[in-house]
């Protein structure tokens, strides 16, 4: 299934639920399958290595620590200032 | 930045081999709570020095500082988000400072994790939300870490005499406190529960074995959410949710939730939530 098709289905499903329909187009897992379905789905939605490239940078915790380490190791400092939380993607 | 140069191997290697790296959230430096005053003063000094040197200065910026912390170079995020521009700034600094190149100054570590200082008996939830569109916003998921104290999560429990088939609605304040974060990556991250119009999470006991209760969760949230901070153009958001709640005596509950359908405006997205141990 293409991404476009999946997107269209998701939009349709969401439209149905927003319109107050009782069931989504995806349906919901039965009582006998719900534990496995939820475990599998939650695992599939975790950030993967490509999402976590940011973590490969050797970040220090604050500006004062960065300056102390810059002096100690004779290295310039890279500082990024941002709105929101770049580390969690809420930005 | 994170979707561009800060995920790019050439940039990561230059940073780790030649620089001390730090990022900050402006809210911590300009808001009513956050970092100590002397840390705030350092950021203000860096900005003032940038102004004095007629460098680009602003809230969302990449800076290069001298090894002793003085402002040396800068890029507005619109430029810094372009990998060649950031690479050029870093290489200029390397040529200028001729740093002691080598390995990273500190060991790289996960930057998103359970909050330190949460009570050992807290229920800690890790939420991952993702839409795949809107350019760099769709390049990596958004995460939240939610902490509920024992007094709070105790309100999720059913009464005595639990039996298969029994149903109950989870505490509405707690469920709102979870579902309010069911939104995709947006620049606005005001997650006030006042945005919620309707919500519920209902549990149904599936099994009771050796004191362990396993219940399925069904629920939904309907709310309004704005993409950009400060705008008035909130769009409707709806999500249907299924999950599993596991209760063991005298332990924080285990909870997993996943959306079966979710959309913000016309953006489909997914959410997954799972309980995790407290940070050591």
Structure description:
- The complex is a heterodimer of chains A (91) and B (280).
- By secondary structure, chain A is mostly helical.
- Chain A is elongated.
- Chain B starts with 8 loop residues before the first helix and ends with a strand.
- Chain B is elongated.
- With 280 residues, chain B is an alpha+beta fold.
- At the A-B interface, helix 1, helix 2, strand 1, helix 3 and strand 2 of A face helix 1, strand 1, helix 2, helix 3 and strand 2 of B.
- Strand 2 of chain A pairs parallel with strand 1 of chain B, so a sheet runs across the interface.
> Helix-strand pattern of chain B, N to C?
HEHHEEHHEEHEHEEEEEE
Number of strands of chain B: 12
Q: Report the sheet-strand fraction of chain A.
A: 5-15%
The largest β sheet of chain A comes out as: none
Class from secondary-structure proportions of chain B: alpha+beta
User: Main β-sheet of chain B, in a few words?
Assistant: 9 strands, antiparallel
The outline of chain A comes out as elongated
CA-CA gap between termini of chain A: 31 Å
Please report the number of helical segments of chain B: 7
Summarize, please.
The complex is a heterodimer of chains A (91) and B (280). Chain A is mainly alpha-helical.
Keywords:
heterodimer, A: 91 residues, mainly alpha, 9% strand, disordered N terminus, B: 280 residues, alpha+beta, 9-stranded antiparallel beta sheet, two-stranded antiparallel ribbon, elongated
């Amino acid at each position: 299934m293409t991404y476009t098709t999946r997107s269209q289905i998701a939009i349709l499903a969401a439209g149905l639920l927003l319109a107050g329909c009782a069931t989504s187009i995806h349906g919901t897992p039965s009582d006998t399958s719900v534990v496995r379905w939820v475990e599998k789905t939650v695992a599939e939605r975790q950030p993967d290595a490509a999402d976590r490239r940011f973590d490969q940078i050797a970040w220090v915790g604050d500006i004062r620590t960065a300056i102390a380490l810059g002096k100690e190791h004779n290295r310039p400092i890279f500082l990024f200032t941002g709105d929101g939380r770049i580390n969690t993607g809420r930005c | 930045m994170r979707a561009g140069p800060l995920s790019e191997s050439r940039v990561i290697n230059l940073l780790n081999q030649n620089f001390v790296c730090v990022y900050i959230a402006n809210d911590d430096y300009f808001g009513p709570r956050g970092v100590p005053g002397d840390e705030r003063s350092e950021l203000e000094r860096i900005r003032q020095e940038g102004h004095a040197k007629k460098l680009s200065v602003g809230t969302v910026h990449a800076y290069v500082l001298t090894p002793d912390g003085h402002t040396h170079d800068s890029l507005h995020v619109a430029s810094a988000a372009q990998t060649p521009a950031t690479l050029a700034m870093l290489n200029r600094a390397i040529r200028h400072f001729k740093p002691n190149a080598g390995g990273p100054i500190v060991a790289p570590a996960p930057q998103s994790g359970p909050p330190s200082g949460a009570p050992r008996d807290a229920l800690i939830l890790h939420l991952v939300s993702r839409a795949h569109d809107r350019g760099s916003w769709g390049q990596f998921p958004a995460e939240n870490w939610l902490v509920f104290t024992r007094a709070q999560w105790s309100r999720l429990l059913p009464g005595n005499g639990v039996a298969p088939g029994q149903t109950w609605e989870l505490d509405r304040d707690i469920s709102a406190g979870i579902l309010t974060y069911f939104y995709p990556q947006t620049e606005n991250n005001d997650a006030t529960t006042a945005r919620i119009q309707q919500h519920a999470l209902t549990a149904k006991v599936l099994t009771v074995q050796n004191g362990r209760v396993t219940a399925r969760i069904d629920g939904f949230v309907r709310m309004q959410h704005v993409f950009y901070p400060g705008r008035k153009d909130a769009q409707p958001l709806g999500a249907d949710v299924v999950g599993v709640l596991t209760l063991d005596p005298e332990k924080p509950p285990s909870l997993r939730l996943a959306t079966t359908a979710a959309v913000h405006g016309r953006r489909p997205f997914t959410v997954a939530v799972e309980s995790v141990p407290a940070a050591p």
